[in-house]
Amino acid sequence: MIPDLSQALSWLDTHPHAFQGISRGIERETLRIRPNGFLANTNHPAILGSPLTHKWITTDFAEALLEFITPVDQDINHLLKFLRDIHRYVARQLNNEMMWPMSMPCRICPNSNIQLAQYGSSHIGRMKTKYRQGLKNRYGALIQIIAGIHYNFSLPTSFWCLWNNINKIKNGKETISTGYLHMIRNYYRLGWVIPYLFGASPAIPTYLIKDKNIKLPFESNHPDMLSLPYSTSLRISDIGYTNRTERKLSIKFNSLQSYISSLKTATKTPSEEFMAMGIRDKQGNFLQLNTNILQIENELYIPIRPKCMTKLNEISSDALKNRGIEYVEVRSLDINPFSSIGITSEQIRFLDLFLIWCAMADSPKLDDTELVYTRKNWNSVITEGRKIGQKVNIGHDNKQFLIRKVGIRLLKDLTIIAKVLDNPNSKPLYLEVCKNLKKSFDNPDLTYSARFLNILKEKGLEKTGLDLAEKYHSQFLKEKLEVIEIHKFNEEAKRSSMSQRQLEHDSSESSSLSQSHTN
């Protein structure tokens, strides 16, 4: 049914410290809203600093779409406290505004334009906004303000040494990259467990698919929303934050070279659809950066990405080519509406367990046939994952198994890994996660999406979101900062603003110098 992990799990008995030093990071998106629940139409608060250069507080697609970024952390509790401190600080700086607590967007004023994120007059700042103009014209602004959580994860180098039975990784780039690609392929195969357990977007605002020819059996449980009875995460469905580029490129993650080649091909190959749009309109305004399949590499929307820290002016594919994969970015998490900061320690611990499983389980190379079935599995879980008797296709022979049966079998392996990760001298936190989540496979009504849909049916999407926003905002205002002192926030705001001004000065000087040479 799923790969046999017995030998790998027995290996853990003799290497109980293999996972000491797991590194994690979180990126959380959230819309700024007005007290009436409508999308804020104000600029990014200047008091927060520059979204172009701030280390922790930036914006994503829209000026009103905040993004919070934690530093790399090996302590889950500290990581969550850091993220919570960002929320606490921002709540205090918002002028009569709050943060929207779910993935699907809030109310939008009729005929209002969603202001693209602004990053100033430097070259890089203007390019970032032009890129967002391209996203708006290619996919629509409403789709782009759907929010999510990105979870960054890396295993310690010591694990890769032990796992590959070597004292020291002489050529770490190839060895570690191969290991992460192994992990990613298994994530494609079974990563649908993430939206099954934690998907929290079973309904969408009615305006999101207005005038679109969507052939899904939506139910109108409330005037302001549409839902599917067994859906888990419409955010990552074809309705939500997605594009179809991955299907055209048929990325299989069988080698780092092929992945990099696919990225570079997509950013250099014209698309007939986007060529028809053109680069500028009749007034000379930018419509998109270029007419290629991807404007830039970040436009590739996939459930999980191989990542490497980039240097100044370095693109992702070059970083991966030069230094290999350093970590993975999980992109399948909805905002958790049951958490004021959008994610919980339970989710983090499950992701730890599952990603370790993905690294250790047998992971043959993906072929076109299996890739098609993995996509079908994800889609069936996204749209009908909680349906009793729902099945998925597993393995090269594509046999069908009940989601419940696959989930419980997977948790059996994860429980063994949990015993290794749990410190013998502390609470069995990872084991508790396995025990709690087994209930969700036994009873789909206990999943996040089922619980949240029940609330949405009663109160509607807008009222539910506004009530939670007010509740969480009040909590943030009452709580004290725990790990980031206020002067650190103020210093970073000042530093980021100065850094943006320096970039603009440098761009201006460069432009003037270029002009003088031209003349």
TrEMBL record:
Compositionally biased residues, Low complexity: 509-519
Annotated InterPro entries: Gln_synth/guanido_kin_cat_dom, Glu_cys_ligase, Glut_cys_ligase
Enzyme class: ligase
Catalytic activity entry: L-cysteine + L-glutamate + ATP = gamma-L-glutamyl-L-cysteine + ADP + phosphate + H(+)
GO function terms (MF aspect): ATP binding; glutamate-cysteine ligase activity; metal ion binding
UniProt record, GO biological process: glutathione biosynthetic process
UniProt region (Disordered), positions on chain: 495-519
Cellular-component GO terms for this entry: cytosol
Pathway assigned to this chain's UniProt record: Sulfur metabolism; glutathione biosynthesis; glutathione from L-cysteine and L-glutamate: step 1/2
EC numbers, comma separated: 6.3.2.2
Entry keyword annotation includes ATP-binding: yes
Family annotation (SUPFAM superfamilies): Glutamine synthetase/guanido kinase
Gene3D superfamilies hit by this protein: 3.30.590.20
Pfam families: Glu_cys_ligase
Name under which the protein is recorded: Glutamate--cysteine ligase
NCBIfam families per UniProt: glu_cys_ligase
Keyword ATP-binding: yes
Keywords annotated in UniProt: ATP-binding, Glutathione biosynthesis, Ligase, Nucleotide-binding
Domain annotation Glutamate--cysteine ligase: ranges: 12-381
Recorded family membership: Belongs to the glutamate--cysteine ligase type 1 family. Type 1 subfamily.
